[in-house]
Amino acid sequence: MRGKPMAKNITSPETDFARWYQDVIREAELADSAPVRGCMVIRPYGYAIWELMQRDLDGRFKATGHTNAYFPLFIPQSFIQKEAQHVEGFSPELAVVTHAGGKQLEEPLVVRPTSETIINHMFSKWIGSYRDLPMLLNQWANVVRWELRPRAFLRTTEFLWQEGHTAHATEQEAREETMRMLGVYSDFMREMAAVPVIPGVKTEKERFAGAVDTYTIEAMMGNGWALQGGTSHYLGTNFARVFETTFLDRDNQRQFVHQSSWGVSTRLVGALIMAHGDANGLRLPPRLAPVQVVIIPIGMQDPRASQVMEASEAMAKELLSMGVRASVDSRDNMSPGFKFNHWEVRGVPLRIEIGPRDLDAGHATLAQRNRKEKFTLPLAELTGKIPALLNGIHDQMLKEATDFREGRTFDVDTFDEFKRLIPEKPGFYRVWWDGSREDENRIQEETSATVRCIPLEQPGGEGECFMTGRKTSTRAILARAY
RNA sequence: CGGGGCGUAGCGCAGUCCGGUUAGCGCGCCUGGUUCGGGACUAGGAGGCCGGAGGUUCGAAUCCUCUCGCCCCGACCA
Predict the structure, then answer these.
(1) How are beta strands A67-68 and A135-144 bridged, if at all?
(2) Is A17-276's fold the same as A409-479's?
(3) Does the CB of A15 fall within 7 Å of any strand B atom?
(4) Beta carbon of A374 within 7 Å of strand B?
(5) Which of A197, A206, A337, A385 has its CA 20 to 30 A from that of A36?
(6) A151 CA, B4 C1': separation in Å?
(7) Is the CB of A46 under 7 A from strand B?
């Protein structure tokens, strides 16, 4: 890239991060806006990323004992209204169907914003005794929350997600489940998305409506803002009580089940874009890249073009048989340079160039999306080295993202200091925390930042709360967030 | 819901203040030729109810009224 100009049609992320984000989505053909406000079309390339996420996560859910099921899109309005906190949290953003079949419905139907209520309704029928527990279900679905301010992938009126719902005999089991799934999400983010996350618990203000405790994984985006990548809730018996989800224990006593629910959404695609993208567009971590290796044949008018094509095809075939997602860009109406840029914008982690000169030298030229220098590898041993190269790219991207986050994480002791620093240095701010909801409101009003979470991993020791001055042993993380 | 911006070719825009023949530019697209190791060149070509409705005028993309929609920034949220 030797000092060449920035990618065409992409605003520099330093100039305007929000516009850069939109430009990348457009140029990489991830999504397009839809005729309905707040909704978006996920284009094939963007959807392919989501499918890779789904496939991996689904495997992790199965491996932890969950099975998939599907519950209806429409929920009787009365269901939502049963749990006080839940209604309060969701009523402003509900889409409600009042007419169908040519007439007004007796009871309006809510388009699910989440499925705790309808699932509890069914659980109460399915669960009789402790022998039916734990019940461990997941569903892949779309949900609708009427958004005032949509952003592609991050916040759309309709979005795709997965919601896990479990019921257990004891609080301890349900809490263990809550933490287990938070761990699954953290692992996924690190191992697949190459995004480091901070697992923690939400404050009361940020808690899911209806949960006892809400846990989160918080990731840092390229502008220093935080993004909640996934949530896992311990629901206690809140929904069980209103839906009478009960079981008979060993002593023949009726008990409420203890529950968890947890989810991640297409928002993760947005997280990927903003955690790894650069001025030239998208950068995809290899394990979530629809195309991991693109092979560009060069000199397609050259007398030896057919040799070049043969070598390219052979290489792709070999890689595919090894389980590497490789493809040859054999379009003959585009110059190599155009193709380089085309695939760079789309974030393909590894590119292989093969031309007559390479054939003469018995090697191919490689370029990593996350590095500037090109290098060569002998043809004889090239394909065998690709898996390790891809793993290396993953490790490098994870390290880059981690280093970036560390460089943007600050410790502050007073609210004044925080107020002064956060506008000029957006990032994660660690503070001693013993504040109330009112304190949080004040923080948000005066700085636009929020308490992202109280990390599970605490440093120990104690200090004075940066708002109240009270002694506390709790450290919290504050940031501006999406 | 507040504040700001924008609707003109598939995409990005100019033209609008100050009305005047056939509405322009770049990219993309189609056809031919030449090209191909970092966004190729060239010749020709296709493509528009100037967001919608009403008005003013001899004449409206341009002026007036009303509408619809989109985007950005804030409040709410995964």
Answers:
(1) parallel
(2) no
(3) no
(4) yes
(5) A206
(6) 18
(7) no
- The answer to whether A116 CB is within 7 Å of strand B is no
Amino acid letter at A219? A
Q: Which of residues 224-283 of A touch strand B (CB under 7 A)?
A: 228, 231, 265-267, 280
| ipTM exceeds 0.90, yes or no | no
- For chain A, domain boundaries: 17-276, 293-389, 409-479
Residue A15 in this model has a pLDDT that exceeds 90: no
Identify the residue whose tokens are 């501006």: A480
CA atoms A29, A31, A36, A37: torsion sign: negative
User: A62-108: per-residue pLDDT in tens?
Assistant: 999 999 999 999 999 999 999 888 888 888 888 888 888 888 899 99
pLDDT of residue A434: 94
**DSSP secondary structure letters along A116-183:** HHHHHHHHHHH--BGGG--EEEEEEEEEE---SS-BTTTB-SEEEEEEEEEEESSHHHHHHHHHHHHH
Flag residues 394-433 of A with CB < 7 Å from strand B.
none
In tens, the pLDDT along A357-367 reads 999 999 999 99
Matching residue, tokens 């309005």: A77
A351 CB neighbour count, 10 Å cutoff: 21
| pLDDT of A148 above 50 | yes
From the CA of A296, how many Å to the C1' of B24?
38
The pLDDT of residue A6 is above 70:
no
State percent of chain A over pLDDT 90.
76
A340 touches strand B (CB under 7 A): yes
Q: Which fold has domain A409-479?
A: Translation Initiation Factor IF3 (3.30.110)
List the strands of the sheet with A450-455, edge to edge.
A67-68, A135-144, A158-168, A258-265, A226-236, A213-220, A198-201, A450-455, A475-479, A428-432, A409-411
The single-letter code of the amino acid at A140 is W
| List of residues 6+ apart from A360 with CB closer than 8 A | none
Place of tokens 């057919």: A306
Q: Are A144 and A197 in contact (CB under 8 A)?
A: no
The fold of A17-276 is BirA Bifunctional Protein; domain 2 (3.30.930)
Which pLDDT does position A3 carry in this prediction? Answer: 29
Is the torsion defined by CA of A203, A208, A209, A212 positive or negative? negative
pLDDT digits (tens, 9 = 90+) for A199-240: 999 999 889 989 999 999 999 999 999 999 999 999 999 999
Among all strands, which nt has the closest C1' to A338 (CA)? B39
State pLDDT tens for residues A413-435: 999 999 989 888 899 999 999 99
User: Using the CB atom, is residue A93 less than 7 Å from strand B?
Assistant: yes
CATH 3.40.50.800 given to domain A293-389: yes
